[in-house]
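Issue 218. Parser rejects a valid record. Input:
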Amino acid sequence: MKVEVNAYAKINLLLDIVRKLDNGYHSLYMIMQAVDLCDKIRVQQIPGEKIEFVCSDISLPQDEGNIAYKAALAFFEDNNISDRGVKIEVKKNIPHAAGLAGGSADAAGVLIALDKLYNTKLTPSQLCATGIKLGADVPFCITGGTALAQDIGGVLSPLPRLPKCSIVLAKPVRGVNTAQAYAAYDAAERIRHPDNCAMLHSMLTGDLKQISGYCENVFEQVIDVPERVGIKTVMRRHGALASCMSGSGPTVFGIFEKRADAKACCNELSKLIPEIFLCSPV
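Output the parser choked on:
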């Protein structure tokens, strides 16, 4: 038997860090949105007890060092499954170290695929309980859609769908290490925080322009992405309602009402940035 699933990327319409917890993690307040840029996950049972793992991006670990492999181990352990003979194939389309939850999406995809393959019929909450052990973004990548994520990412509240729009993703060459991003935040003397309440209310009203007006990411205050100003300038010139960094960066997204404007933006950005994606909410 073989199971194939799409592992969707995400953007952070809003990302705020509320405080640093005693355990060293950070309490977050994030408005998350899944987009239709996705990796492809294929899982099938094979003879034996060994997990075989293949990732199309050879720069990423091809063994237990890959979060998708770790997801398989966590699934088997949490569900007391000894029959672990599976082959996992990950075809990468989401850029690595981009702030788009590419690794978390793969982990979520593996958990969902294994649940189907082994017919464990786990609830979303059960899948998320395993997912949060792997990373803060994994629970959201399991549920997808549009949501408010709090605490370290495991507290999810579904929100109304983002109104119809086009989303441009521009990923500069240099990646950003998430741990270093949080360290830079902790070292900052002063941080300006977003208006979280106003953003949440805007999400409930479904007004795209109002939502766009409150898009903000605190990491932009501590993470230096040299291309960011240029990317935002091009996006705004083509009518972007919002342009903001996603996650710990470096990818910048732009929200457009008109598909034609988004396409024109992609055409201009492709001359400056190597990886450009035209997406829709999913």
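Fixed in the parser; the record now loads. The mean pLDDT is 96.
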